[in-house]
Amino acid sequence: MKKLLLTAGLAALMLSTSLSATDDKAADAAKAHRHGLMQTIKNSALSMRRILTGELDQAENYSALATALSVSTGIAVDAFKENTVGKGKGHTVAKDHIWDNWEDFSARLEKMDVDAKALERAAENNNVGGSKNELVQLFKNCKSCHDEYRSEH
Question: Distance from CA of residue 135 to its chain's centroid?
Answer without folding.
Answer: 18
